[in-house]
Amino acid sequence: MKIELDLSRRPEAAPAALPSLAGLSLPALKAEMEKIGVEPRKASMRAKQLRRWIHHFGTQDFDDMTDVAKELRAELANHYILTRPEITEHQVSRDGTQKWLTRFGPGIEGESVYIPGVGKAGALCVSSQVGCTLNCTFCHTGTQKLVRNLTAQEIVTQVLIARDALGEWPASTEGRLLTNIVFMGMGEPLYNLDNVAEAIDTIVDGDGISIGRRRITVSTAGVAPKIPELGARTGAMLAISLHATNDDLRNELVPINKKYNLKELFDAIRAYPELNNAKRVTFEYVMLKGVNDSLAEARALVQLLKGIPAKINLIPFNPWPGSPYECSEWDTIEEFAEVLNRAGYASPIRTPRGRDILAACGQLRSESVKKSAAEKRREALEADQAEGPAA
Ligand code: SAH
């Protein structure tokens, strides 16, 4: 008997093994079209169609793409999926804050937090890296090693996941719940600027997700040489994690200050394009009891910001297990804010959000790491008990 193997017919790959197009930039979509043999002349047009279906309508099924020929839809479905990465945790706080832990790959988990009432209607805080290299002493993410940069697609995917949960497809411009994006999740965005800039291009695209550049804020611990470049490439709003008004203390709290001190940092901030009263820099200042919260420091902060169109965000320190600091007393924070207000700065105190779901910086992932360690212990215990002699 002769057995014939038909090698021309590839077995159907499991859907999960196919790459997703969701979150890809327009140039990346075009490259994918060329990869599957769409002629270059048409690849651009196809990429634009896909962009609209995926990022304006939120489509997750090629069959919804009614202006794409049936054969091409089938061909697309042979090569790609439109689904999002696996969400390993999704929590909704009593105050409406939502948090997602997304699994981008084995051991690669990033968190995003939706915070209602921030920005025009609500802001999504996205991660740009998994882990961080900066080791700021008050930040829990700083205690985790850098795992890797997130790709532009993975950054955009965080926005798609939030839109899915908020039910905001198609991307209408009226009555949106998700109006602002802040790069204040895990990681240092200016150490991943290429991917952050590509993600921003996709997020602002008027035929896609369509969130304005002025509604996107990128926060940095102070990678000075990249600051003007961020402005030139993205047009985003700038936020600086300042936290101290002199080099000695800042060297301790935000160690990247040893590389780029306050003078270099402020020279770079002054070079940020288009700063004016409508486009101000946000300075974040975490309130640490007895460390950086004296009234003398509030006055020093006012001096430091002279001549820069600025907003100040006072952030009550969010403690984490084993953290070496405490949050300043509420009265102290208010007195500190009062000095800033008298100097003409609106200085809102960022109210703690989503406390019941641990929505603070770096906490979700560490919880899950803790849990999996606990799970491992339990498994080890169970294995032990299974092997051990019956009692
Ligand atoms: N690497 C970037 C973005 C991530 S941190 C940056 O440093 O700006 C986002 C903001 O959360 C920063 O202002 C950071 O200083 C602040 N933050 C980190 N841990 C915190 C904590 N435990 N309590 C309050 N704010 C914290």
Helix content: 25-40%
The total tally of domains equals 1
Strand content: 15-25%
DSSP summary: helix tally: 11
| Strands, total number | 11
Task: Describe this structure as you would to a colleague.
- By secondary structure, the protein is α/β, with parallel strands linked by helices.
- The chain has a single domain (86-363), classed as Alpha-Beta Barrel (TIM Barrel), CATH 3.20.20.70.
- Helix content is 35%, strand content 15%.
- The chain has eleven helices and eleven strands.
- It has helices at residues 26-35, 40-56, 70-79, 152-166, 193-204, 227-234, 247-253, 262-270, 295-304, 330-342, 363-387, and strands at residues 86-92, 98-105, 108-116, 122-125, 129-130, 148-149, 180-183, 216-220, 237-241, 281-287, 310-316.
- Strands 1-2-3-4-7-8-9-10-11 form a nine-stranded mixed beta sheet, covered by helices on one side. The protein has a two-stranded antiparallel ribbon with strand order 5-6.
- The chain is elongated.
- 40% of the residues are buried.
- Mean pLDDT is 88; it is low at 1-11 and 370-391.
- The site of S-adenosyl-L-homocysteine has 17 residues, from strand 8 and strand 10.
Name a few traits of the molecule.
single chain, 391 residues, alpha/beta, TIM Barrel, 11 helices, 35% helix, 15% strand, binds S-adenosyl-L-homocysteine
Short overview:
The chain is α/β, with parallel strands linked by helices and 391 residues long.
Layout of helices and strands, plus pairs?
Layout: H1 26-35, H2 40-56, H3 70-79, E1 86-92, E2 98-105, E3 108-116, E4 122-125, E5 129-130, E6 148-149, H4 152-166, E7 180-183, H5 193-204, E8 216-220, H6 227-234, E9 237-241, H7 247-253, H8 262-270, E10 281-287, H9 295-304, E11 310-316, H10 330-342, H11 363-387
Parallel strand pairs: 4-7, 7-8, 8-9, 9-10, 10-11
Antiparallel strand pairs: 1-2, 2-3, 3-4, 5-6
Helix pairs in contact: 1-2, 4-5, 9-10
